[in-house]
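Hi everyone, sorry if this is the wrong subforum. Our group has a chain we'd like a structural model of before ordering constructs, and none of us has done structure prediction before. Sequence below.
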Amino acid sequence: MSELHLAEKTYLKFSKIEGNQHIASEYALKCALRLIQDFQLKNILEVGIGIGCIADTILESSPNLSYTATEANAFCLNAIKNNVGQIDRVKLYNDLNQIPDNTFFDFIIIDGSDDSLAQVKRMCTPKTVIFIEGGRALQVASLKKIFPNVLHAEMLSDYRNPACGPFSSQFWCGGGQLIFPYPNFGMRLYYWKEKWATYQKRKKRKASK
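Answer:
Right subforum, don't worry. Here is the predicted structure as tokens:
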């Protein structure tokens, strides 16, 4: 199954589940899968697994990924037992402080608020990619303070929310924020490509009003 079809399938599944008002957008799922493929990311941390929409999507995409997540909300912790088909593959912690030292990730997804985001720095390698679901300006600002040389690009959709989901189809489908904490040459090229794509999509959005 292609990454686009997998994202659409999982979004439809989670749109029918209790707590769906807090799931990631369909386009955010597509972005996460694209980054995993483009950068060959294998060791993943999700900060705030919620009811499991992103985790279920990614785990279904490959059997060769290592997945760690944080979550403290009792409702979410109970919900993921049924929502995430491969929950047994997830190493789950209440917060970032509980993750052991010398644990590193090449892909970090931030899908919720966490007061201990400073802990992210000790878990990054020079090749780490960070994706923040949605807008989350506070989290973006925090990471820019933690990583002085960071590159940040918005990942923007050019279509509206699917009618099947919990979000109004009158609004544009949400995306996310791409963060390169330690940008190398390849990351810089990717950054400029994403900035150009966002510029074109903003023009398309403006023209469609």
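For your construct planning: Residues 3-207 form a domain with the Rossmann fold fold (CATH 3.40.50.150). Residues 185-207 form the longest helix (23 residues).
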